[in-house]
Amino acid sequence: MSSRPLKARRPAGVRPPAGVRPSVKARPPGSRSLASRIADRVGGGLVQAFLIVVGMFWLVPTIGLLLASLRTPEDMAADGWWTVFTEPSQLTFGAYETLLENGDITGSLLNTAYITVPATVLVVVIGSLAGYAFAWMEFPGRDWWFLGVVGLLVVPVQVALIPIAELFGSLGIFGSLVGVVLFHVGFGLPFAVFLLRNFFAEIPKELLEAARLDGAGELRLFARVVMPLAGPAIASLGIFQFLWVWNDMLVALIFTDSGSQPITVALQTQVRQFGNNIDVLAPGAFISMVIPLAVFFAFQRQFVSGVMAGAVK
User: Are 71 and 84 in contact (CB under 8 A)?
Assistant: First the structure.
């Protein structure tokens, strides 16, 4: 017979007391998997250095466009923008002076602002109200209406271009700023309602009930309680909508005329005369790109908070 001591077995159905874990044998130092050891080694400074290099390469087109906009057309025709590092005397603001004298470009910049700001504000305001209604208000067919809104997310813009163009033509707003703003608002609202409804649904119900017990109506509850809590989500939505509308060219190319075209269409018309207007194209393209970048970096903290909202409880 074996002389090894017998281990006491726990009776079936009996669990160890709370807070007591069964003993686990420690792994020997060399028993870690190869993937785990590689992840530990590359998870430090090597990955950070790699990401810095990738970020620098990502910024090369922006830096190149900036330096190109600060050179004369003759210098740009002679060699590349990187020669300014050896000949900094090439840098000049003459191209920006020429840009300010071009009425088409300056007018298109104002048109872009006239389109982007109202389209962003209306989407945020209407989307916030609709998202709160779908999240916390009871009305007939609420879930079905929300499913209809979600279904609109899959409708491509190209499908609606011709029907909406005919509708705007019958209403007399085709080719105007109002028509472009309404188009962007209509296609931006489904995503706005979907995003904000899911965010509002995560607000604790007890908080809203406490505000109602204090006598707050729905409008006051929305303005004083819900909106301050939804700041990160609204900032994320505003940045998304602003970038989509500012950089849009397809809708603007179809729904605007020569007096209402934004900067994207104005630059596209200048490309036809690229050899003569390069001193206008470079600074105009840089300004049209740097404004969305400035908006994003100004609200990047709110953007990250809004994207991560609801991911961790």
Answer: yes
pTM for the whole thing?
Answer: 0.74
Token digits for 279?
């001193």
Q: What tens digit of pLDDT does each residue of 84-133 get?
A: 888 888 888 888 887 888 788 888 989 999 999 999 999 999 999 999 88
CA angle at residue 291 from 286 to 295, to 5 degrees?
150
Smallest CA-to-CA distance from 112 within 312, 285, 270, 299 is with: 285
User: 43-68, pLDDT tens digit by residue?
Assistant: 566 777 887 888 888 888 888 888 88
Residue 114 burial by Cβ neighbours in a 10 Å radius (0-12, 13-18, 19+) = middle
Distance from first CA to last CA of the chain, Å, rounded?
Answer: 57
Q: Which residues pair with 175 in a beta bridge?
A: 256
SS3 at position 175: strand
Tokens 């990187």 locate to 82
Burial class (CB in 10 A: 0-12, 13-18, 19+), 312: exposed
